Amino acid sequence: MELVAGCYEQVLFGFSVHPEPKADGDHEKWTPVADFTHHAHTASLSALAVNSRFVVTGSKDETIHIYDMKKKIDHGALVHHNGTITCLEFHGNRHLISGAEDGLICVWDAKKWECLKSIKAHKGHVTFLSIHPSGKLALSVGTDKTLRTWNLVEGRSAFIKNIKQNAHIVQWSPRGEKYIVVILNKIDVYQLDTASVSGTITNESRISSVTFLSESVLAVAGDEEVVRFFDTDSLTCLCEFKAHENRVKDIFSFEIPENHVIVTASSDGFIKMWKLKQDKKVPPSLLCEVNTNARLTCLGVWLDKVTDRKESLPPAAELFPVSKEQSKSNKKDSGHVVQEEEKQSKPNTKKCGLTGVSNKPTKGSSQVLTKKRKTVEMLGKKKRKKNKI
């Protein structure tokens, strides 16, 4: 498995993690080894998503970078948004959905890396989005104080709910029977069947990240050193533990055979992996930690050779259907990936540290701005005219 984390210093870190079985067969201590640092963005990283092949990162530089984790190369960049990329989420291995401060939600083909659909989702910024486990619905929140439900099969807005304040997180539960909306330090728990709030959880500080550990248990990280587990049915705090020396910026959970793990990243520069107990009232035990010496902002875990659980969900044709005319217009748009040659320089494999050097955009790189692209086209036309003469 590979720990990946982004930071304010524009770098993506990668650490391969090797479980060390003890005599009793239990994995008590794991070893993270620095694998790569990659400096592709020109501003701080703001979002990260992982599927079984790729890691994608969003940044304040308005681009989304794609990393092929099998080959350990930069696969290219997606340019469509005009604003900080605020959220990224894969749906299986077929689709990536992105949201940004321009108010757009974009659906990308994660095979051809084309923009299938671009929707003006919110009047203000899109602050967060979450895809239902079925792949048929999505939720988004924005700075226009609305919670919006999207019908992904038909590619249209299904429902708009006005909320009193700007929400900054929305998240479906694993089975999709409920969802939570986070506003500052409060978590409103909604039931899918009624679409109404069944209860509210209050954290002691502003919430920075959440992840469901089960259908009813939610892990909550905030602008403090502590992580708390809440029961979304009884609305009670099951346990809390000090995870870091500074505020926890992101939290992620995953399951592998015999282990349910959560990962935390903090402004103190540390990434830590914790083994969850069966009884969520008992704090988890530390498996490993690594110091990046950077101000971390987002994280994920890439699991090699793992079958994606969402492969059986709606195929590409069923998720945001696109007409032929729309497909052509999207290809003309700047919103498609520029595939980079595999022989291009690989991510810096030096040990942990901010030593990565930004890869210069290759010919036709999507990091080249629209004005520059037009200039290049004009120069090309002039050269062709000279050749004719």
Automatic annotation (TrEMBL):
Primary subcellular site in the record, as a coarse category:
nucleus
Q: Does the keyword Ribosomal protein apply?
A: no
For molecular function, the Gene Ontology terms on record are: kinase activity
* A single cellular component GO annotation: nucleolus
Q: Which GO terms describe its biological process?
A: negative regulation of signal transduction; ribosome biogenesis
Sequence ranges of the WD repeats: 78-118, 119-160, 257-284
UniProt KW Magnesium keyword: no
Q: Where is the composition biased (Basic and acidic residues)?
A: 325-345
Segment Disordered: which positions? 321-389
Checking Pfam families in the record gives:
WD40
Which key words are in the record? Kinase, Nucleus, Repeat, Ribosome biogenesis, Signal transduction inhibitor, Transferase, WD repeat
Q: Name the InterPro entries for this protein.
A: PAK1-Kinase_Regulator, WD40/YVTN_repeat-like_dom_sf, WD40_PAC1, WD40_repeat_CS, WD40_repeat_dom_sf, WD40_rpt
Places the protein is found: Nucleus, Nucleolus
Q: Where is the composition biased (Polar residues)?
A: 356-369
As for what it does, the entry says: Negatively regulates the PAK1 kinase. PAK1 is a member of the PAK kinase family, which has been shown to play a positive role in the regulation of signaling pathways involving MAPK8 and RELA. PAK1 exists as an inactive homodimer, which is activated by binding of small GTPases such as CDC42 to an N-terminal regulatory domain. PAK1IP1 also binds to the N-terminus of PAK1, and inhibits the specific activation of PAK1 by CDC42. May be involved in ribosomal large subunit assembly.
> How would you summarize the oligomeric state and partners of this protein?
Interacts with PAK1.
What name is this protein filed under? p21-activated protein kinase-interacting protein 1
What taxonomic ancestry is recorded? Eukaryota, Metazoa, Chordata, Craniata, Vertebrata
